[in-house]
Amino acid sequence: MPQILELIREDHELIRGLFDELESSPEARDVRCITLRRELPGHIYAEEVTLYAYLRDTVPEEIRRSLDEHARVRDTLARFERIPLRDADWMPALVNLRREVEEHFATEETDVFVLAERHIDAGVLFELSEIFQEEKEKAARYVTV
Ligand SMILES: [Fe+2]
Ligand SMILES: [Fe+2]
């Protein structure tokens, strides 16, 4: 299994792809929304119990900032989920959610990844990837559709 930062990057790519499809393919929106509602919260939760938990004591300010971003993404996702697909507010809400998520991903891929590589041993980064996958799968089971 690749190390955790590679898994996180793969998730980010998958979620960016989902946003592309949601914006461009109206016919696939309902099923892509279900996937987004499973993938995004699962990804965020799995990061918190692996990478963030591991870095929290070493770089508390950066992790606090990332946790705040997670809280905002969760709130925005919850508001987005309440808007019906055919509502005129749906696309602006999607664009807003995407911007927030992409800004957070960019922070992670630059700042947080650098900190992880600096402060976590390579062997641990590999070990964390297994826990990351397990936690994501567990979180996906609790998603109500
Ligand atoms: Fe994150
Ligand atoms: Fe992430």
From TrEMBL:
Per UniProt, residues of the Hemerythrin-like domain are: 4-114
Name of the protein in question: Hemerythrin domain-containing protein
